[in-house]
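User: Predict the complex.
Assistant: Input components as received:
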Amino acid sequence: MKRRGYKALSTTALIAIIVIIAIIIIGGVVYYITTQQQAPSKIKIGLFISNLGNPYFVALRDGAQAAVNELKNKGVDIEMEDFDAKDDPNLQTTQIETAVGQGFSALVVNPVHVEAIQPALQKAKDAGIPVITTDRDVADHTLRIVFIGTDNVAGAEQAAKMLIKALKESGKPTPWKVVILNGIPGTTAAEDRKKGFHNILDQYVANGTVTIVAEEVANFRRDEGLTKMESILAAQTVDAVIAANDEMALGAIQAIEGAGLTPGKDVIVVGYDAIPDAVQAIKDGKMYATIAQSPFLQGYWGVYAAYYHIAKNWSPSEDWIPTPTVVVTKANVDTFEQEVKSPKPLPGAPSG
Amino acid sequence: MGKTGGSEGLVDTIKNLWSKLSVYEEVKPLIALIGLFIASALLSPYFLTSYNQRILLLQTAPLAMLALGESMIILMGSIDLSPGSTMALAGTVAAIVHISYGQPLSVSILAGMATGAAVGFINGLLVTKAKIPSFVATLAALVAGRGMVLILTGGQPIVGLTEFRVFTEAIIGLPNMVWIFIVFTGINLLLLRRTSLGLKIYSIGGNEEAARYSGINADLVKLTIFTLAGFYYSIAGLMMNARLEVAYPWTGWGYELDAIASSVLGGIQLTGGIGSPIGPAMGAYILTLITNILILMGVSPYVQWVVKGAVLAVAATALTRGLKYVK
């Protein structure tokens, strides 16, 4: 009895194993055929975002999705899959490496770090998959076909021009005493914005209309903006503050109020980034202007650049396609978000 | 002959006075503070203005709270790397309770304090029960605490904390938060000098093995002090809420090092067991003063860091003179 029981069991097991193997083989063949049929016509784009918890990058994703939808409406067989690295370079590396094995046609990458993900991008390059970087670039430019991101020098120049405009309107006597608050030394954004401020302000310093009474590092932070500005106000009368981001500008506003002065009237404040708090401060008249970047266009142009490269064999003539910055003041504080979220054609795009 | 004798007499008197004074551990940091204060007054005409003195105290208050908490832990021979994250978490929780849940200011302040104490309690458990060295346990709290702040805030500041102005409003010429840190400095003095708990803290820091053999429940003391320190940090977090009128997610980033530096400047030995209870508050004031005077003088921001580092090294050297060895 026992022996027969075993035999019966082993026969059942044998049949089960054969069936399972058959299903796997048939399934694999069917999957292989179907994917092979799709591959030539379908464009599959991978979008790798550093952190979707940040509204800035959500706008970037929305822009990319808008471009994909537009192309679909034109009858292009295109789809996009997005990945959130949660600011973790290891996770982004894994995501890119996995995607390289999945047969994506192009990767639009917003790197977590300028160097950390380069080995992963090298794998994409070896596999012949084109890469486009957005918002942040990678150090080795040969790993991507083009970088699409903000021209921070130009944005900072716009901010400095707004500062001069506000000072002229205020009728304050010259020389105007200006404070500059810089970001974390060595970061691209901080260095570019500092350069942009000086490009404009140095001309006015040279002809004696502006004196830079203090130039401090507040590391892009609101609490440091507050304490640094407090100490500056102890030694100087200040007509205007220009900060390399809104957090520092808002800290400065807090210090100005703490010193019994009125921000916007006694001291003019200009920031950068157009974060929600700063937009509110502009509405309240405490901040004169800030600079909005265009993450939407970074995503939108990223997808178009990938599409033109694959479908029309297009290569950009420039190494970097700068995305525009928009000055936000009381005049356009309610409408600027529409302005930065409206699609514009990719500069240098092929016709048709 | 008589002349030399007279000057020798003066030198002797000074030596005598010094040997009497140097019994008090507060003397060295106090001399450093007074010296720097006078030097600053000579270096910048703006230093002594009432506005500048006011902001100096305002800027000192949160750091002093961190340093007072940190120093109790250092006195036990442990270290705490979590002050910056704990203050941010406490401030964030208080803001959320106040803004998102619409609770009155008093309730939100209590919630913030409870959060700080809870973080400290967990640190204490990790050190005493899980037997993780305090450096590692509180490093975990530093990282995880900041992560929780970022999760709770989504990386965006929580705005509308105008009611927290009670901390910055003035009574008898000084903002309330300055009074708070002065009161807590007094509490530390009483706790460490006049209670048996204070004695136990010093004896654990001096020789933990000996303290344990003599019947001191060192684990209970550590748990208590870590919790108390967490509570101190939470007050610093509430002060920062008041200063910025928002709960800023990066509040206190890197402040653990300032808290340790303040303790060292205040004469607390990192090996534990030695140091004045009120020294850290002076250390916090010194550190704030250095930052302030460098800005008043318009020193380049890059040079400022070098000067701060040099002052710290020089001060620490002066404070450890006379010790046989350090760890």
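Chain A has a mean pLDDT of 90.
Let me know if you want any component modeled separately.
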